[in-house]
Design brief:
With 154 residues, this protein is of the alpha+beta class. The chain has seven helices and five strands.
Length: 154
């Protein structure tokens, strides 16, 4: 059975945004008990128009913490988002067993986990692993099971 081996969250802070708020939003993607141990990376760059952009990202690699955070994410989604993830799961998970989620950055800042409906997002990648190699059907079953455990009705 697959397990969550890594969770990455990344957001862009544009010139009109406060970097600390974006950092808070990215941190809020992770379970509360793990947040104090997160290492947040901040990279300053420029857009193709030379407008300053700051990339804020966090990566979690510890298997136990990844499971806690994955459980937290699935439980935190409102019912309609759980249904949407279940409906679009085949489009959200790659052949390499990576689950892609786009979360609303403003809602994450307010400690509410919801799927993004607009362009202001936190991109989240959930890496699922299984030995000797991850089987896509097993990874899909893991995500569906987690959605059902967290109250998703399909």
């Amino acid at each position: 059975m697959p397990f969550v081996s890594r969770i990455e969250a990344r957001a862009y802070s544009y010139a009109t945004e406060q970097i600390d708020r974006v950092r808070t939003a990215v941190t809020n993607v992770y379970a509360e008990e793990i947040r104090q141990d997160l290492k947040i990376e901040v990279i300053k760059t420029k857009s193709h128009n030379q407008v300053p952009i700051v990339i804020v990202s966090a990566i979690l690699n510890r298997k136990k913490d990844c499971k806690i955070t994955f459980d937290y994410l699935m439980k935190s989604f409102p019912q309609e988002d759980k249904l949407e993830i279940g409906r679009t799961l085949l489009e959200r998970i790659s052949e390499r067993c990576v689950l892609f989620l786009r979360l609303d950055k403003q809602e994450a800042f307010l400690e509410r986990i919801t799927l993004a409906r607009g362009p202001d997002i936190i991109g989240v990648k959930v890496y699922l692993r299984q030995y000797p190699r991850c089987v896509l059907d097993d990874a899909i079953a893991l995500v569906r099971n987690q959605l059902q455990i967290s109250g998703g009705q399909f």
